[in-house]
Design a protein that fits this description.
Order of helices and strands: HEHHEEEEHEEEEEE
Strand content: 35-45%
Oligomer: single chain
Number of helices: 4
Distance between the termini: 15 Å
Radius of gyration: 22 Å
Largest sheet: 6 strands, antiparallel
Structural class: alpha+beta
Shape: globular
Number of strands: 11
Helix content: 10-25%
């Protein structure tokens, strides 16, 4: 199990070993089932990530001035590439986080389930385009700090239970004490934590208002490195304030590397 379950493509080795050594009718693979989930989050670390990106670009601009002043060398031709490198790292990559339960703003939705007794290498390649819809309401606490949505978080759960495929249900051994494991924020810190996919900028939630996010998620294995994945998110944002005004943001599309 890798970060967000599939990272590092470790499941490939498990599937190949299963097909070579496990008795197909009666064998049990543990964990037996896996589920991937996402949910919108409010996490102040988002602002730190943005700040680190801006600091990096300010340092670069200072370097350009000094290089020109001290050595008469104009390095500005590298600015675009330098900015891309920093954007890819800070803004277009997921971030490993250990979230608190209260950072989750809406019930998570399942984006993929795997029956590990029968899933295939093709199943392990990623997550097909999956729709999601989240309704996020203001807490109504009246706190001075503005509520906002900073992005999505992804995590996984696994189960240790009897087989549920038709052949396994007939011939497989029965587990009388199934066990459930989760890397969800509500469980507390785990080795796997969660993967945060931060928005380019936070989405504010007006006091006593509601935000609706509709979209799709897709997870694709990287062509450059078979152990890594990219996550594509497409979504629209609708907001409703207490006065009944509505606003719909244009479709947003972001692709994140899971480093």
């Amino acid at each position: 199990m890798g970060y967000f379950l599939l990272r590092e493509s470790m499941l490939d080795s498990v599937i190949q070993a299963r097909d070579m050594f496990l008795k197909p009718k009666s064998g049990i693979l543990l964990p037996s089932h896996a589920t991937m989930l996402i949910a919108p989050i409010m996490n102040e670390d988002h602002h730190m990530v943005i700040e680190e990106y801006l600091v990096g670009m300010n340092d670069w601009n200072d370097y350009l001035v000094n290089a020109k002043k001290q050595y008469g060398v104009d390095m500005s031709i590298l600015t675009e590439e330098y900015d891309k490198e920093h954007r890819d790292y800070y803004l277009k990559s997921s971030h490993y986080v250990q979230l608190d339960d209260d950072t989750i703003l809406a019930p998570p939705i399942v984006v993929k389930t795997l029956d590990l007794a029968v899933c295939t290498l093709e199943d392990a390649k990623g997550v097909d385009v999956t729709e999601f819809s989240f309704d996020i309401e203001s807490s109504g606490s009246g706190a001075d700090d503005e509520e906002e949505i900073n992005g999505f978080a992804g995590w996984f759960t696994v189960d240790f239970q009897s087989r549920t495929d038709e052949v396994g249900k007939q011939f497989g051994a029965k587990m009388t004490n199934p066990v459930h494991f989760s890397s969800s924020p509500e469980i507390g810190d785990t080795h796997w934590g969660q993967q945060a996919f931060y928005f380019p900028s936070a989405i504010p939630i007006q006091s006593n208002g509601k935000v609706k996010i509709d979209g799709t998620m897709e997870m694709i294995r990287s062509k450059e490195n078979a152990r890594l994945y990219n996550v594509k998110l497409q979504y629209t944002v609708g907001t409703a304030a207490a006065d009944g005004l509505n606003n719909l943001m244009d479709m947003v599309e972001s692709v994140y590397k899971i480093p």
